[in-house]
Amino acid sequence: MERLERRRALIEERLVAVVDGVDPETLNEEVRHVALSGGKRVRPMVTLLACETVGGDPEDAVDFGVGIELVHNASLVIDDIIDRSDLRRGTTSAWAEFGHGPAIITSDGLLGEAFALFSADPQATQVVAEAMVELGVGEATELASQPTNEAEYMTLARRKTGALFRAAAELGAIAADSDPFAVEALGEYAERVGVAFQIRDDVLDAVADPDELGKPTGHDAALERPSVVQVTDLSPEEANARAREEADRAIDALERVDAVDREAREYLRELAEFVVEREQ
């Protein structure tokens, strides 16, 4: 765990430095409110651990990790506007704190800072651009033509959640100058982890005790959001089994990677286990 904490501190230190450099002051305040309000930093941790798994130096991957975290935060700002959600990570959401216009500008500012971090590497820029296309299609699909069956739901989960996870892992492999086979295998691993995470998140929102979960439940149903238990015939138990299948296939993909750092790969395997077992 000490190793993970060191990696998390590395990410946090660089994230603070990037945010400190944002101008003008008004935008700096808004970006700071979003980017430094907490969060598990799962995606940038995946970036660093993927880099280390294939023999790279985490210092070489930290800018990419921070960049993908900024992209993720930018998407959350827009999600909160769409969902009319007043809270994010226990604090006021960007639109509720600053208004709709400033929140949209904040999302743009986060994306701008992110792509500044990717810009030195054309492959990294392409990977993130492709992920954002998938994310945009997913958001549009959710608003315009919600899924009505399991296959359509899985496609949406891959686009809305899996795509950024995939980019996070691929960026780590790219930072380590890894071969295309490892980039693809790590990308598949992370995409499946993201889908498993989304399924489990939907189940917890539907069935968990709010006090145990640490946040209100029933959010998906109230907003008519296409949760796995809303748009499929799967019971919560069956949905959890689907999440388990995705996690198992993620681990299979991870095992295809010729690991230089087996401890880093083990942390990635543990993440795949955690996302389907978590209660929060």
What does this entry look like structurally?
By secondary structure, the protein is an all-alpha fold. The protein has a single domain (2-277), classed as Farnesyl Diphosphate Synthase. Helix content is 78%, strand content 1%. The chain has 14 helices and two strands, in the order ααααββαααααααααα. It has helices spanning 2-20, 25-35, 42-53, 58-83, 94-98, 100-118, 122-144, 150-175, 180-207, 210-213, 219-222, 228-231, 236-255, 262-277; strands spanning 87-88, 91-92. Strands 1-2 form a two-stranded antiparallel ribbon. A hairpin with a 2-residue loop joins strand 1 (87-88) and strand 2. Helix 2 (25-35) crosses helix 6 (100-118), helix 3 (42-53) crosses helix 8 and helix 4 (58-83) packs antiparallel against helix 6. The chain is globular.
Compose a concise summary of this entry.
The chain has 280 residues and is an all-alpha fold.
